[in-house]
Structures are given as structure tokens and as C-alpha cells.
Recover the amino acids of this structure.
């Protein structure tokens, strides 16, 4: 049996890019949510969390609708940059970013909220800007939350199926990621291949999660935080 | 010279309360702010630090920190602040905590040696005792050579022997750096040892302002001494009544006659004082 590893490679490439983009985009959102006293906070939180409760088909439908060449956004990108945003890898990345957004924002927000407010104020009093405080004080003190955010986003993107199938389809080497590949194997009743792929997914996912929890335990012991 | 004239509406435990304080503080003065919890002491300190908004004006030397149109950012006030819970940067060693404020290794070493922390410079804050943490926090507050040092009940979480060591450090640093210091405190002995002036707040207003001796000594008229305590119980014994009063950590008995006893209610706060006899002092 020839094992085609391309779907796994695609899954991990997609997850890595999504995690990187979300880390940059979601960090200010998590920071803002943790510090703000704005009355609009519950509204923003609800919007951020929507992808968790929405069926992937709803999200997939809207993303497909918004990015296709029939919509202004899709048309703009196709005419200006000559890029198509659906049924290719770029579209997958955009869809994944929406889908995994809350998984990056929520652990970061929780981490920032758990910080001693006086510690941040001590940094402001020392003359440091918000950005310096975020980088030198806040982030180093929420390493477990940071690790959780990065890994859960990565793992969640590897594990996504519905949105990917709707926005990307199943184009080998382009949008056929591991989860979609397994689905197709089951459909054509190639159970032995499905078993191998599924076992690989379980092993990888378990290893990643175990790594996160072990890191967090070690970190909390070092800084004397009881978890 | 620091001129403060601020108002702010606070949400207290008993509803809305107006903080309304006008104060003038001389350079190099050591002022203690006392008063019951919820009287606005900490808020006043945070307003001075620029950590909270308020209406009014704050003028320090010739700099305007707060007026109707502007509020100088906390970052630009160049103050030192010592928090009750230390608020050290947990990810940085003792030395890094100081250097983060100002890259001045010489000053950092000097401060650490002065407070006896030289040996601990590489340690992380969570491996230190409460007293050591507060000394680090004190050193950190001096890294900017602040003109104004603010302290929010800096010693209330420490045991008595550690307090006295830190009081010594605070006074030494206050003198060496020539800062103007404002400290929130509950502890009369601490106020007496450190401060040259006490401002007593109640419900957001200044009710007393004077030297520690004037404000803290509770005697009136010909009273030789006077203590405040809580009346715990009145026990009837034959023809007399014995009042049990808790004063600080101690319990004392006071003899009352029938008529006097009937005017007191258990649980009320009372003054214990004497006029005829001078109290005497003996070694423990």
C-alpha cells in the first residue's frame, strides 16, 4: 500500500500559516478585550466566539459567498491582484483564520486577564508604553496561555473539516487536506487506508496536546503558580 | 511643592461617595494618609499616579499633571510607586526588575546593597519572602530617582519585625534621595516613626491634618492616656459590673458601677482613659 503523505503536509502547512496569521491578528484583540472597560465588550466577545457555536456549513457558506467572484470582495481581488480566493489554498487559509479565531483569542484574553493588574501598572509607572508592557511584562508572564493558544489553534486547524470542504473542495495537492482525504477514503470504502490516516492523526494530536500540558506544568512549577 | 485639588465620585460599600481633597505638600515632606478602609485613601494615591481619572488640578513643582483639559500620562510623571502586593515582574530576576525601570547598574547595585538584597540579585521574585519582595519593590520605585514616591500600605502584609526593618529602609531612602513621600497606612506606630504629617480622610474628605502627635494622640483635657477599644461584654459581679474591652490584640477589664453600666451597649466602640493616676511603664 502506497501511503500518500501530501494531505498531511497540506494540513500542517495550512495550520502553520493560520496560526502565524492569527497570532499577529488575535493578540491585539485578546489584549484589548482583557483591558477594556467599554460597554461594547460583550458584543465583541460574542462575535469573536461565533465560530465555536456556528455549524461549519454556515461559516463555510458565508465565506464562500463573500470570496467568490460574484461578490465585491472576490471580484476586487480577482481584478486587482489576479487572485482567486475560493477552491484554492489561499481561500483555505482565509477560511481557517475565521474558523480558528476564537481559539487564539480566548486563551490569550484569559491569560491577560489573570495577570496582576498592579504589575502592568508598575510597568506604566516605570515609564513603559502599552506595547513595551505587552511585550516585556504581559506576554512572558502568560507563557502557558500563549502556548495553549498557539497549539490549540494549530491542532484545531489540522482537525477542521466542514469549512475546508466547502471553501476548498478536494483538489489533490491544493486543498485536499488530511481530514478531507479520510472522508473520501471512507466514502469509497477504503477502510484500511482510512485506518492508517486516522491512526496518524490521533498519534500526532495526542503528542501535541501532551506536550502542551507538560510544558504548562513545568512552567507553573518554575514560577510558583498553582494551577 | 505639590498642590492637589481633586474631586471624584466613588462607588463605596455604602453607595456613592464624593472624594474631595485639597492638599498642599512641601518638598521632601513625608505625609501619611490615614483613615478607615473605603475612605478614598488608595483612590487619592492612584489619582496622583495618573492611574485613575479625576476632576480638578494637580500641580507638582511647576509642572501641571492634571487640569480641566489635560492629564499627564502616568508614564511621564516620573514617580515611584510601592504596591501593597509588591507587583514585581514575575518573569524577571530581582536585578532585572530594577533594570527594567532604568538601565543604571550602579544605582541598582547601590539600592540592593543598601537594603541587604545583594545576594539575591539573580533570584526570581516567587522564591523570595514577603519582606524581601517588598524591599525589591521599594528599590524598584527608586530607580527613576523619583521626586514623588507613593506607597499604598506597603507594610501591611508583613510581620512586625520585618516591618521595623523596612521602616528603617524607607526612611533611609527617603532621606538619601530627597523625595517627597506620600504613604497610605493604617498603623499608628508606623505613621509615628516615618511621617512628619498625617492627613486623616473620612468619607472622601480631610477631617484632620497635622503632626502625627497631634492627630494620633487621643487624649483630651486632663486625660493621662486614652485608648480606643471594642466593648465585648459587661459581666455583673455582686454590686459591681466588669466591662471586658478589646484594645488592639489585648483584652482588659474595667470596673463600672450599675448606673454607668446601663449606658453602654455590648459591641460599641469605647474610649478607655484615666485621669487621676499616671500609667507606668515596665519591661516585658
Amino acid at each position: 500500500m502506497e501511503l500518500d503523505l501530501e494531505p498531511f503536509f497540506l494540513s500542517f502547512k495550512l495550520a502553520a500559516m493560520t496560526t502565524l496569521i492569527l497570532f499577529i491578528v488575535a493578540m491585539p484583540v485578546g489584549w484589548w478585550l482583557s483591558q477594556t472597560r467599554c460597554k461594547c465588550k460583550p458584543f465583541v466577545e460574542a462575535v469573536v466566539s461565533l465560530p465555536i457555536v456556528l455549524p461549519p456549513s454556515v461559516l463555510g457558506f458565508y465565506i464562500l459567498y463573500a470570496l467568490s467572484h460574484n461578490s465585491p470582495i472576490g471580484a476586487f481581488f480577482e481584478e486587482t491582484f489576479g487572485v482567486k480566493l475560493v477552491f484554492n489554498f489561499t481561500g483555505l487559509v482565509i477560511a481557517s483564520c475565521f474558523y480558528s479565531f476564537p481559539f487564539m483569542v480566548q486563551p490569550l484574553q484569559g491569560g491577560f486577564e489573570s495577570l496582576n493588574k498592579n504589575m502592568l501598572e508598575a510597568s506604566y509607572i516605570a515609564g513603559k508604553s502599552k506595547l513595551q508592557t505587552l511585550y516585556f511584562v504581559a506576554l512572558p508572564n502568560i507563557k502557558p496561555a500563549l502556548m495553549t493558544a498557539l497549539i490549540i489553534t494549530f491542532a484545531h486547524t489540522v482537525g477542521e473539516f466542514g469549512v475546508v470542504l466547502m471553501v476548498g473542495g478536494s483538489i489533490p495537492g491544493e486543498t485536499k487536506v488530511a481530514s478531507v482525504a479520510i472522508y473520501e477514503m471512507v466514502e469509497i470504502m477504503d477502510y484500511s487506508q482510512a485506518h492508517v490516516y486516522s491512526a496518524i492523526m490521533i498519534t500526532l494530536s495526542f503528542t501535541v496536546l501532551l506536550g502542551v500540558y507538560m510544558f504548562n506544568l513545568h512552567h507553573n512549577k518554575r514560577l510558583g503558580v498553582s494551577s | 511643592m505639590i498642590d492637589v485639588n481633586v474631586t471624584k465620585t466613588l462607588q463605596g460599600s455604602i453607595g456613592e461617595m464624593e472624594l474631595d481633597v485639597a492638599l498642599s505638600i512641601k518638598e521632601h515632606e513625608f505625609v501619611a494618609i490615614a483613615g478607615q478602609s473605603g475612605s478614598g485613601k488608595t483612590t487619592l494615591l492612584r489619582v496622583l499616579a495618573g492611574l485613575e481619572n479625576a476632576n480638578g488640578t494637580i500641580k507638582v513643582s511647576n509642572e501641571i499633571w492634571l487640569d480641566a483639559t489635560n492629564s499627564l500620562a502616568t508614564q511621564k510623571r516620573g514617580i515611584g510607586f510601592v504596591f501593597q502586593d509588591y507587583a514585581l515582574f514575575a518573569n524577571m530576576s530581582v536585578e532585572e526588575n530594577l533594570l527594567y525601570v532604568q538601565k543604571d547598574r550602579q544605582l541598582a547595585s547601590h539600592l540592593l546593597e543598601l537594603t541587604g538584597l545583594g545576594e539575591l540579585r539573580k533570584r526570581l521574585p516567587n522564591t523570595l519572602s514577603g519582606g524581601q519582595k517588598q524591599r525589591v519593590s521599594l528599590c524598584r520605585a527608586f530607580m527613576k530617582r523619583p521626586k514623588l514616591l507613593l506607597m499604598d500600605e506597603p507594610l501591611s502584609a508583613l510581620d512586625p519585625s520585618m516591618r521595623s526593618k523596612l521602616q528603617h529602609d524607607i526612611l533611609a531612602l527617603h532621606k538619601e534621595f530627597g523625595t517627597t513621600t506620600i504613604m497610605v497606612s493604617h498603623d499608628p506606630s508606623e505613621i509615628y516613626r516615618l511621617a512628619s504629617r498625617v492627613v486623616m480622610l473620612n468619607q472622601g474628605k480631610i477631617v484632620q491634618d497635622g503632626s502625627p502627635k497631634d492627630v494620633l494622640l487621643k487624649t483630651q483635657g486632663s486625660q493621662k492616656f486614652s485608648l480606643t477599644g471594642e466593648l465585648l461584654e459587661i459581666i455583673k459581679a455582686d454590686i459591681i459590673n466588669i466591662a471586658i474591652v478589646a484594645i488592639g490584640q489585648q483584652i482588659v477589664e474595667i470596673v463600672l458601677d450599675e448606673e454607668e453600666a446601663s449606658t453602654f451597649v455590648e459591641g460599641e466602640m469605647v474610649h478607655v482613659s484615666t485621669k487621676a493616676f499616671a500609667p507606668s511603664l515596665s519591661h516585658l
